[in-house]
Model the fold of this input.
Amino acid sequence: MNTKDYIKDNSAFIFQLDNVLYPEKDYLLQVYYLFAQFMEYTEQMDGRSIIDFMREIYEKEGDVAIFFKTAAQFNLPEKYKDNFELLHQNARLPLKLLMFAKVLSFIQEITAAGKKVFLLADGDPVMQLNKIRQMEWHGVGEYLTVYFSAEIAEGSTAEAVQIIIEKHGLEPSQVVLVNNCNKEQKRGFNEMLNFLDIDKLLVT
Done:
Protein backbone atom coordinates (compact mmCIF):
# COMPACT_ATOMS: atom_id res chain seq x y z
CA MET A 1 0.00 0.00 0.00
CA ASN A 2 1.33 3.43 -0.94
CA THR A 3 0.81 5.55 2.17
CA LYS A 4 2.10 8.63 0.37
CA ASP A 5 -0.99 8.62 -1.88
CA TYR A 6 -3.28 8.62 1.15
CA ILE A 7 -1.36 11.49 2.68
CA LYS A 8 -1.27 13.50 -0.56
CA ASP A 9 -4.98 13.10 -1.29
CA ASN A 10 -6.36 13.73 2.22
CA SER A 11 -6.17 16.42 4.87
CA ALA A 12 -7.03 14.60 8.10
CA PHE A 13 -6.73 11.13 9.59
CA ILE A 14 -8.77 9.64 12.42
CA PHE A 15 -7.26 6.60 14.10
CA GLN A 16 -9.15 4.31 16.40
CA LEU A 17 -7.28 2.85 19.37
CA ASP A 18 -7.65 -0.85 20.14
CA ASN A 19 -6.14 -3.16 17.51
CA VAL A 20 -5.47 -0.15 15.30
CA LEU A 21 -2.69 1.76 17.03
CA TYR A 22 -1.54 -1.25 19.01
CA PRO A 23 -2.60 -4.88 19.70
CA GLU A 24 -5.22 -4.80 22.48
CA LYS A 25 -4.01 -8.13 23.82
CA ASP A 26 -0.82 -6.38 24.99
CA TYR A 27 -2.94 -4.44 27.47
CA LEU A 28 -5.32 -7.22 28.50
CA LEU A 29 -2.63 -9.84 29.10
CA GLN A 30 -0.78 -7.44 31.38
CA VAL A 31 -4.00 -6.76 33.28
CA TYR A 32 -4.51 -10.51 33.67
CA TYR A 33 -0.95 -10.87 34.90
CA LEU A 34 -1.46 -8.17 37.53
CA PHE A 35 -4.72 -9.78 38.61
CA ALA A 36 -3.03 -13.16 38.95
CA GLN A 37 -0.30 -11.57 41.05
CA PHE A 38 -2.97 -9.92 43.21
CA MET A 39 -4.71 -13.26 43.78
CA GLU A 40 -1.41 -14.88 44.63
CA TYR A 41 -0.77 -12.20 47.25
CA THR A 42 -4.26 -12.02 48.78
CA GLU A 43 -5.37 -15.67 48.55
CA GLN A 44 -1.99 -17.44 48.45
CA MET A 45 -2.93 -19.00 45.11
CA ASP A 46 -0.65 -20.07 42.28
CA GLY A 47 -0.43 -16.92 40.18
CA ARG A 48 1.36 -18.70 37.35
CA SER A 49 -1.49 -21.20 36.93
CA ILE A 50 -4.05 -18.39 36.89
CA ILE A 51 -2.27 -16.30 34.24
CA ASP A 52 -1.59 -19.38 32.09
CA PHE A 53 -5.29 -20.27 32.23
CA MET A 54 -6.41 -16.72 31.42
CA ARG A 55 -4.01 -16.46 28.51
CA GLU A 56 -5.25 -19.74 27.07
CA ILE A 57 -8.91 -18.73 27.45
CA TYR A 58 -8.24 -15.33 25.89
CA GLU A 59 -6.46 -16.82 22.88
CA LYS A 60 -9.24 -19.38 22.31
CA GLU A 61 -12.38 -17.45 23.27
CA GLY A 62 -11.50 -13.78 23.72
CA ASP A 63 -12.09 -11.69 26.83
CA VAL A 64 -15.86 -12.18 27.19
CA ALA A 65 -16.73 -13.35 30.73
CA ILE A 66 -13.11 -14.25 31.35
CA PHE A 67 -13.35 -13.38 35.05
CA PHE A 68 -16.24 -15.80 35.60
CA LYS A 69 -14.47 -18.55 33.67
CA THR A 70 -11.35 -18.03 35.77
CA ALA A 71 -13.35 -17.83 38.98
CA ALA A 72 -15.05 -21.12 38.18
CA GLN A 73 -11.75 -22.79 37.38
CA PHE A 74 -9.97 -21.66 40.55
CA ASN A 75 -12.94 -21.18 42.89
CA LEU A 76 -12.29 -17.43 43.22
CA PRO A 77 -14.65 -15.40 45.43
CA GLU A 78 -16.96 -13.23 43.30
CA LYS A 79 -15.98 -10.19 45.38
CA TYR A 80 -12.77 -10.00 43.34
CA LYS A 81 -14.71 -9.12 40.21
CA ASP A 82 -14.59 -5.46 41.29
CA ASN A 83 -10.81 -5.64 41.65
CA PHE A 84 -10.57 -7.22 38.21
CA GLU A 85 -12.65 -4.45 36.63
CA LEU A 86 -10.74 -1.72 38.44
CA LEU A 87 -7.47 -3.13 37.14
CA HIS A 88 -8.79 -2.64 33.61
CA GLN A 89 -9.24 1.05 34.39
CA ASN A 90 -6.16 1.92 36.40
CA ALA A 91 -3.54 -0.80 35.95
CA ARG A 92 0.05 0.38 36.05
CA LEU A 93 1.53 -1.84 33.40
CA PRO A 94 4.89 -3.58 33.79
CA LEU A 95 5.62 -2.79 30.13
CA LYS A 96 4.73 0.16 27.92
CA LEU A 97 2.24 -0.43 25.13
CA LEU A 98 4.02 -0.45 21.78
CA MET A 99 2.39 0.82 18.62
CA PHE A 100 2.38 -1.25 15.46
CA ALA A 101 5.59 -0.22 13.69
CA LYS A 102 3.84 0.52 10.39
CA VAL A 103 1.19 2.62 12.13
CA LEU A 104 3.86 4.64 13.91
CA SER A 105 5.69 5.19 10.62
CA PHE A 106 2.42 6.21 8.93
CA ILE A 107 1.60 8.77 11.63
CA GLN A 108 5.12 10.16 11.43
CA GLU A 109 4.66 10.64 7.69
CA ILE A 110 1.27 12.30 8.21
CA THR A 111 2.56 14.76 10.81
CA ALA A 112 5.66 15.51 8.73
CA ALA A 113 3.30 16.51 5.91
CA GLY A 114 1.45 18.88 8.23
CA LYS A 115 -1.84 16.96 8.08
CA LYS A 116 -4.22 16.67 11.04
CA VAL A 117 -4.30 13.50 13.15
CA PHE A 118 -7.04 12.51 15.58
CA LEU A 119 -7.35 9.61 17.98
CA LEU A 120 -10.90 8.38 18.58
CA ALA A 121 -11.18 5.94 21.48
CA ASP A 122 -14.31 3.83 21.89
CA GLY A 123 -15.32 2.18 25.14
CA ASP A 124 -14.77 3.24 28.76
CA PRO A 125 -12.97 6.62 28.70
CA VAL A 126 -11.18 5.93 32.00
CA MET A 127 -9.72 2.67 30.73
CA GLN A 128 -8.87 4.11 27.32
CA LEU A 129 -7.11 7.09 28.87
CA ASN A 130 -5.11 4.68 31.02
CA LYS A 131 -3.96 2.93 27.85
CA ILE A 132 -3.10 6.21 26.12
CA ARG A 133 -0.99 7.33 29.06
CA GLN A 134 1.03 4.11 28.95
CA MET A 135 1.63 4.05 25.21
CA GLU A 136 5.15 4.49 23.89
CA TRP A 137 4.47 7.38 21.52
CA HIS A 138 7.95 8.05 20.11
CA GLY A 139 7.14 11.75 19.96
CA VAL A 140 3.96 11.58 17.84
CA GLY A 141 1.53 11.79 20.77
CA GLU A 142 1.78 15.57 20.92
CA TYR A 143 0.38 15.82 17.39
CA LEU A 144 -2.78 13.85 18.16
CA THR A 145 -6.08 15.41 19.16
CA VAL A 146 -7.88 12.86 21.35
CA TYR A 147 -11.62 12.23 21.57
CA PHE A 148 -13.66 9.61 23.43
CA SER A 149 -16.82 8.51 21.64
CA ALA A 150 -18.55 7.84 24.97
CA GLU A 151 -18.08 11.50 25.94
CA ILE A 152 -18.98 13.25 22.70
CA ALA A 153 -21.46 10.89 21.05
CA GLU A 154 -22.81 8.48 23.69
CA GLY A 155 -20.56 5.76 22.35
CA SER A 156 -21.47 6.00 18.67
CA THR A 157 -18.32 5.89 16.57
CA ALA A 158 -20.10 7.15 13.47
CA GLU A 159 -21.57 10.14 15.31
CA ALA A 160 -18.25 10.89 16.98
CA VAL A 161 -16.49 10.95 13.60
CA GLN A 162 -19.11 13.35 12.25
CA ILE A 163 -18.69 15.62 15.29
CA ILE A 164 -14.93 15.72 14.75
CA ILE A 165 -15.45 16.57 11.07
CA GLU A 166 -17.84 19.41 11.86
CA LYS A 167 -15.91 20.78 14.84
CA HIS A 168 -12.68 21.07 12.87
CA GLY A 169 -14.26 22.20 9.59
CA LEU A 170 -13.04 19.15 7.68
CA GLU A 171 -14.17 18.06 4.24
CA PRO A 172 -15.47 14.48 4.67
CA SER A 173 -14.10 13.39 1.28
CA GLN A 174 -10.60 14.31 2.53
CA VAL A 175 -10.86 12.48 5.86
CA VAL A 176 -9.55 8.95 6.39
CA LEU A 177 -10.80 6.75 9.23
CA VAL A 178 -8.20 4.13 10.07
CA ASN A 179 -10.01 1.24 11.74
CA ASN A 180 -10.74 -2.47 11.66
CA CYS A 181 -14.48 -2.37 10.84
CA ASN A 182 -16.18 -4.75 8.47
CA LYS A 183 -18.69 -3.55 5.86
CA GLU A 184 -21.65 -4.06 8.19
CA GLN A 185 -20.04 -1.90 10.87
CA LYS A 186 -19.40 0.90 8.38
CA ARG A 187 -23.10 1.63 8.02
CA GLY A 188 -24.13 4.97 9.46
CA PHE A 189 -20.90 6.77 8.65
CA ASN A 190 -20.74 9.79 6.38
CA GLU A 191 -20.86 8.41 2.83
CA MET A 192 -18.04 10.69 1.71
CA LEU A 193 -15.67 9.36 4.41
CA ASN A 194 -12.66 7.31 3.33
CA PHE A 195 -11.83 4.10 5.19
CA LEU A 196 -8.45 2.48 5.59
CA ASP A 197 -8.62 -1.01 7.09
CA ILE A 198 -5.75 -1.50 9.51
CA ASP A 199 -5.04 -4.96 8.07
CA LYS A 200 -4.32 -3.37 4.70
CA LEU A 201 -1.77 -1.10 6.31
CA LEU A 202 -0.12 -3.80 8.43
CA VAL A 203 0.30 -6.48 5.76
CA THR A 204 1.86 -4.27 3.08
